[in-house]
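Researcher: Please predict.
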Amino acid sequence: MFVTRHSPVTDPVLKDQLWTLYSRAYARTAQSAVTHEMLDRLEFNDQLIDESNRAWVVWEDNMPVGMTMISLDVKRTRWLSEHFFQLHYPQQFASNRVHYVVWAVVDPAYVTKGVSMFMARQAMAAEAREGALLVFDMPEENQPKAEGGAAELMHRMARQVGGAELVPLTVQRYYALDFAAGSGDEQSRTDSSEESLSSTL
């Protein structure tokens, strides 16, 4: 295995190869996560050609088997609030060292073959040298609790290349009101509750 670094990715053949890898790796997450975790092809291409992004690709012979995309400019991402980082991390923000992991994927056939660790050592070593604040997020599938999970894996990989503190930033939960699942009995109980509430006012 070997790693290549790209900024931007312009070769059309490489773009196709990376899209095949990305879509294979994200297929399960796209079905299990409520959020828009998997980009479509146009969004994916936009990230590849953005010169403020840095791609690391792991190869097995002539086939890409792992890839991570890191945004080097928080002001150009649509996923993070530049105002938050300007306030809470002013030094890193002012020196353009707030970086964001847009994605990190491994071909499902190579998950158990050490590709993640191999890729992380290359990418995180560069982040450590630059003194970056490397921001990442995880769907609940990969991070069911505040501790452990993929966040702890990222922390362990970061410690292999330098000192790094794992800082929880926020939690976001999604809910839905499913009116199709409602029943007439539920409506009757709601009406009774409203009448009781009105009589107490």
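Model: The chain has a mean pLDDT of 87.
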